[in-house]
Design a protein that fits this description.
There is one protein chain. By secondary structure, the protein is of the alpha/beta class. It has a single domain, classed as Rossmann fold. 36% of the residues lie in helices and 24% in strands. It has 5 helices and 7 strands. Strands 3-2-1-4-5-7-6 form a 7-stranded mixed beta sheet, with helices on both faces. Helix 2 links the parallel strand 2 and strand 3. It is globular and about 40 Å long. 41% of the residues are buried. It binds S-adenosylmethionine. The site of S-adenosylmethionine has 19 residues, from loops. S-adenosylmethionine (SAM) binds next to loops.
Length: 216
């Protein structure tokens, strides 16, 4: 994996504030969702867009080895620090990778993890094709993503999507990610709709679940 330097004031600020901004949501239930989701991660695990490494403490011994990827150098710095301080550090490899062009061979992971990432990658369809490619047959994508809601929430999300993306480093609040996963080569196995606790209305609709790479 290579180092892809990402610079710019916005990227530095986003990385510096990320954990603090998310803390009220984490404390109000998002952390519990991460724990439930990541308890299912097993075997050789790849995490996409790992950010500051919020997921690091939630992996269990079922995850035999973990590759955490992140393309933003400001996030990557924090991710490396979090991993170095973790008791699981020796099982975790870290590096820069674009989820739309993963530097890994076909069928090389049992689990891929994506939390709050499909909102930000430039091409979610391409990312899901890559996830399908690097998963072993029967391997699983575990996801938790904020998504397009319904009715007045959806209207508000479409209105604020562009300005929000400009301040939040490309995060789109109006992506129908559940439809994108359903239309991908992965097979949706479990889908739960919920809310991101303590989030503003346009970031609140949340999905969590599991999709697999079919065996044949
Ligand atoms: C909202 S943060 C989520 C961080 C973390 N996964 C979490 O659950 O808190 C979105 C992350 O996606 C990363 N990202 C942006 N473009 C990406 C890409 N093309 N491939 C992989 N990750 C990307 C960002 O750098 C950022 O760390």
């Amino acid at each position: 994996m290579s180092e892809t330097p990402t610079s710019g004031f916005r990227s530095r600020l986003f990385a510096a504030l990320y954990d603090r901004v998310l803390a009220p949501s984490e404390e109000a239930g998002l952390a519990e969702r991460r724990r439930e989701l990541l308890a299912q991660a097993n075997g050789r695990v790849l995490e996409l867009g790992a950010g500051t490494g919020i997921n690091v403490p939630y992996y269990t011994d079922a995850a035999e080895s973990i590759v955490m990827t992140e393309p933003d150098s400001n996030m990557l710095k924090r991710l490396r620090r979090k991993i170095a301080a973790s008791p699981q550090a020796r099982f975790i490899e870290v590096g820069s990778a674009d989820a739309g062009n993963l530097p890994f061979p076909d069928a090389s992971f049992d689990t891929v993890v994506s939390t709050l990432v499909l909102c930000t990658v430039p091409d979610p369809e391409r990312t899901l094709e890559e996830v399908h490619r690097v998963l072993k047959p029967g391997g699983r994508l575990l996801f938790m993503e904020h998504v397009l809601g319904k009715g007045s929430t959806a209207r508000r999300q479409h209105l604020v999507a562009r300005p929000w993306a400009a301040v939040a480093c490309g995060c789109r609040c109006d992506r129908p990610t559940h439809d994108t996963i359903s239309a991908s080569p992965l097979e949706l196995q479990e889908l739960e709709h919920g809310r991101m606790p303590k989030a503003t209305k346009f970031l609140s609709p949340l999905i969590q679940g599991r999709a697999i790479r079919p065996k044949a």
